[in-house]
Amino acid sequence: MTARLDSELLPDWVTWLRAPNAGPMTLDGTNTWLLDDGTVIDPGPDDLAHLEAIIEAGPVRRILFTHGHPDHVDGIMTLLALTGASVGEVPDWLTELPTPGHTTDSVCFVAERDGQRVVFTGDTILGRGSSVVAWPDGDVGAYLASLDVLAGYEVPGLPGHGPVLPDCAAAARWLRDHRLERLDQVRAALKQGARTPEDVVNVVYADVDPGIRFAAEWTVRAQLAYLETLSEL
């Protein structure tokens, strides 16, 4: 069942709904954000109960999404059929920021009204933990640059999964440091004799949940591709 959540960090013009699709890759489930002008950000999976909860909390006039992964967009066609909303029309008070890295098409949205400002971060910054750089579509260099952009927003971050972030900028800086630390670990693994992405995963992500080992391998492949651009391989 869809959860409707409250947070003291949310402006009064934002409603937070969480889809019932919890899992290793989606944390507690996909966060859907509904703005009081009828804008829906990341409708989530094609789950009728969740989509009906969005409509009940509505109105629903336009639909935006932070990137094209199924857990964020599979519900769009059904929501369109139920509401007649439009897709992709960004309201004037909401700025779209290209933030590639997790995926090529990843974007964030900055909204400001009534003296309140927030950033909808999608999967570029999660509410907890770190995002997968989803090779071959994801790109470590682009991700680091996107984190540099988001480090300029010292406002709450409203992520695609997990709890609201008190400070988007602080989360971006932490993630950037974390990514650089992981790159150092990959370099060390290569020096120790790792030859394949699987070898690197065994060293750098030895404690990863077996259920998401494939995601760790995606990230390692993206890390190796990035290091190759630096002529380090």
TrEMBL record:
Residue span(s) of domain Metallo-beta-lactamase: 29-161
Transmembrane segment boundaries: none
Family matches, as Gene3D superfamilies: Ribonuclease Z/Hydroxyacylglutathione hydrolase-like, Winged helix-like DNA-binding domain superfamily/Winged helix DNA-binding domain
Superkingdom of this protein's organism: Bacteria
InterPro entries (UniProt xref): Metallo-B-lactamas (IPR001279), RibonucZ/Hydroxyglut_hydro (IPR036866), Sec-metab_biosynth-thioest (IPR050662), WH-like_DNA-bd_sf (IPR036388)
Protein name as annotated: MBL fold metallo-hydrolase
Species annotation: Catellatospora bangladeshensis
Origin organism lineage: Bacteria, Bacillati, Actinomycetota, Actinomycetes, Micromonosporales
